[in-house]
Automatic annotation (TrEMBL):
Any one GO molecular-function label of the UniProt entry: diacylglycerol O-acyltransferase activity
Family to which this protein belongs: Belongs to the diacylglycerol acyltransferase family.
Membrane topology, from the record: Multi-pass membrane protein
EC code: 2.3.1.-
Name the record gives this protein: Acyltransferase
Transmembrane segments: 21-47
Amino acid sequence: MTEKVEGMKQKKTKLKDFLENISVLQWILTFLLLGLACIGLMVYLMFTSLWPLPTLYFIWQLKDWHTPERGGRRTAFVRNWKMWKHVRDYFPMKLVKTAELNPNKNYILGCHPHGVMSMGAFTSFSTEACGFMDLFPGVRSCLCILGGIFKVPLYREYAMATGCYPVSKPSLEHLLSKSGKGNAVVIVIGGAAESLLSLPGVNTVYMKQRKGFVRVALEFGADLVPVYSYGENNIFRQVIFTEDSVGWRLQQLFKKLMGFAPCLFVGECWFWMPYHCPVTTVVGSPIPVPKRPSPTQEEVDHYHSLYMEALAKLFHGHKASCGLSDSHELRII
């Protein structure tokens, strides 16, 4: 696998290699710093002669507060930026279809694993770089992410433009009942807890106690679809703290306060540039789910069990074609 990636890198021109590195660097800095930069800029402007600009924006943001949970403002222009194709080619990334998705139905796609930054999920479902609309005609991918991002001035506009939505009950309700049919709502099930399990060569997903997405699927009659991104855990090398160490305690405290865990990681170069590791995101077959406005716990447990079985089947059915050996197992905790 390493020789194959090296061969692909050698075939690229210097310009192409530069564009890929700049595009990925932009994504990394956006993920890590754009929110803080937007807050800092607005605070700074409040103490200059340009103070009316942030004041007017804050007034408008309050008026526009619920837009992210009511369909957002996704734009094809941002989703089709050529930059996203350079990000795709850097690794490279690929989206694989295993079954049809009926555009007359709605779906909840559970994406695994989280990885450090969920780059596979973002590139596959919040951009058109991997050709989601070509693979699934009439179906619209809707990546749901941490709701706090949509409270950050300016940053929220960028997130909405890419077609991201808050992973909140009002947001999911709107997408699954008030936005017509053909919506594929993508949720990275493991969330912050799973990001701390991201290690090269490790395939661990955190979902035995994650049943909220199944309950939502039953409430709105949305079919469940397992998705696995092979290679997501390989693109960074995370610094793992031993349990009960100071670093571990700080991570847990930050996760409790902010909703996500800060990961210390290193990349291939410049510390933060990810490794050139292929990432293949495989979309599994839909699991039919009936509509139950008030599902019982037994129904939730039943479909959650079916989902875990389908995820394990998907993982083992495609691991060989995605570069994993027979010895690799999927660990569900």
